[in-house]
Amino acid sequence: MSVCEHLTNFVYNEVKYGVKVYKDECTQCFDTQDSENGINVCLTCFNGGCSNDIYNHSLYHSQHFKHPLVLNIKRTPKPRKVDEPPQKITKLEIVEEKEEDLYDINTKIKCLVCNKELNRTYGKLPELIDSILLANSSKVQNEINSWEEEIVSCTHTENLEQCEPKKLEEQSLAHCSECELRENLWLCMICGNLGCGRQQYGGIGGNGHALKHFETTGHAVSCKLGTITPEGNADIYCYSCNDSKLDNHLADHLNNFGINIKSQKKTEKNITELQIEQNMNLDIKMTTKDGKELEPVYGPGFTGIENLGNSCYMATIIQMMFAIPEVAQRYLDLSFDQSLGDYKPAESYLCQMTKMADGLLSGRYSIPIDKNSPQKFQKGISPFMFKSLVGKGHPEFSTMKQQDAAEYYQYFLQYIELNEKKFGNDPTTVFKFSLHERLQCKQSNKKDEEGNEYEPVSFDTCLSQLALEETVEFNCPNCKTKTEAFKSTKFLTFPKYLVTKMERMKLVNWVPQKLAIPIILPEDKIVNLDNYRSKGLQEGEEELENVNEEEEEPAVNEEVVSQLMEMGFSRNRCVRAIMATDNNGAEVAMNWLFERMDDPSLDDPIEKKSKKNGGGVTANAENVALLVDMGFSSTKVEKALIETNNNIERAIDWLSSHFEDDIELTSNQDTTDKMDEDEIDNKPAKYELIGFVTHMGTSAQCGHYVIHLRHENKWYLYNDEKVVKVTEELPTENAYMYLFKRL
What we know:
The chain has 21 helices and 27 strands. It folds into 5 domains: about 5-135, Zinc/RING finger domain, C3HC4 (zinc finger) (Herpes Virus-1, 2-Layer Sandwich); about 155-270, Herpes Virus-1 (2-Layer Sandwich), CATH 3.30.40.10; about 285-435 and about 495-505 and about 520-525 and about 685-740, Alpha-Beta Complex (Cathepsin B, Chain A), CATH 3.90.70; about 560-605, Ubiquitin-associated (UBA) domain (Helicase, Ruva Protein, domain 3), CATH 1.10.8.10; about 620-660, Helicase, Ruva Protein, domain 3, CATH 1.10.8. The longest helix has 16 residues, at about 405-420. The protein has about 750 residues and is an alpha+beta fold.
């Protein structure tokens, strides 16, 4: 093998702990080590790039950053022996299946500038190759960080007072003190009683005798036998806290019962592993009523998504969003823009959204697996970079716990909208609409206009609850009294695509339980929303004075004002800070002030606003143009400038803190605020069903999500990586979310 000048001059970088090594997958597409050409890992920055004939992201990275050397990693499955009898089980022990047992790993050192393979034994290359292969990949690091649920100790584990030392029977002879169960045993860490746990997923028995022991004795802390490891890990449960806890003195506490932690072997799955197994294995039937397997489909638009462990909620929403042409095209148009990878592609919003669009819609990854593989369906794509980026910083979506698909949908919409502000090309506008709230005073009759087993119910009945008239308490500006009013809500405008969520959960003794109520759609799957259209102020009706007019004095929390003033700030500055941070508390306002210590405009008198017209402030045209060029909508920009008296810096702060709000400008003229005719959406409001998400399980925190989508008048089921054509009647009555398209 040869040596080139780039190798002789190469400066070696060490793979330090915590450095992400992108060796599993290209950061800009879904090519992996299993792809035809494998993955090239940059030896300078450890970025992963493909070398396929379409994109060759590795070559672009090399040329752009002048990083010439790569380690090519190609993985090939080892042949599996067919009809080999399973190994006889002589003991129960959890053994991890290792990659080297399943695959052959081939590596090469290449110079992409010289376009040739190099001598892998030159200089420090052998050590660098080993360190890359042994390092946790970015995927594994993300999984570790996501699965690491923050389990902490509690007062019951920290202040544990044990009874006299007691030696337990050998585990092989041990059984529950109340029954004969020999698995799923929980050791009371106070008295040493052995009790069976509650029944668990997967046929693991339990009669709840450990819980009964707690209820009888008050001994709260238990340890699950079989989950103890020599490293000091085990399932610890506090019945008083009703949660998993950490025992910082586990070895000492177990020693009280003659258990040497160093000699323990893990023989049972812990709670987290059981939950993962439940969510990974809970599956929808992939067969017809007569037992025939549903037909797998492949090609563009039919790419499955691998379950990363409790990620089906995300997969269904991703499939739904990228099935919308306006969303898909926004990012497909960027597929050949190599510059998206110019800066940390794994952490780039546009790069990962474009990668997802290409992965799902190109068809390159929707292909049958090798016929020798035991897996019947396609492999699909594994969006671990996407999940890590979108969920970054979120207390729930950054974890590997099961989540609510509807909540993720709302979060994902906001995530796109926020990031697209920089580019001014938000595709989520096709989901937006305005509701019209109507208040009718009972006394003056004037209106205020502002923007288990269950019987089946129709979708229209559910929708009618939105527009249902209700009686509310009301301070009438006309009557000048506290009275009651009729309140109702209807559509002012309609979206191109309508997503609805059915309320399928209710609290029973503060525990969420699922409502298995069948929802009946019309036979043609078309719903008409014309009955829920707002018609505005009608003839013979008088409009109430604006009940949402601003007060003359800005409404601020006086307690927060006092806290800030005690730190030495003037009242004027304190009030400005609280207003600019939208009354979000002293700490946020304090940070805002510290960032603007040298801004003299904060000492200017605060403008008092007229109740009628906002003090006559109008937005400066030059300032409007400047902020619109930054990607903000003109309506929000005008509102921000009016609110901040045309102060550009404060307007930007205001826009940042109100990015999720639907903003409407009120007229600066002293006129009655009636809706213009062109504000009202008069087009037919008929919608046809094009998709629906179904949840299987007892609550939103467990179970499994799948989605049905319609393509060219045919229906398909997306169940993680499995995509099949549906030939029977659609199970729409069990849907959790519906996706409609306006006709």
